[in-house]
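Progress against Task 2.4 (sequence-to-structure conversion) is shown through the following example record, which the project officer requested during the mid-term review.
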Amino acid sequence: MIDIKHIIASIVEEKRRHNKEPSIASFTEIQSVVIRSLKSEINELCKTGEIDKHKTLNGGAFTINIENK
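Structure tokens generated for the chain above:
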């Protein structure tokens, strides 16, 4: 599960360390971190064979691999 509070805290802390103002986490910054985390987790699940990726006309789709459930 994605911990939004942790993501916000890390963005704010990073800005404070670099003296960037305002030291706040914008929705876009949060969204970017969440998307990177999501992609990383999906890639890991594909590598371990827990899910299968399928190409569709509009992008991709996923199914649970029953054999590795």
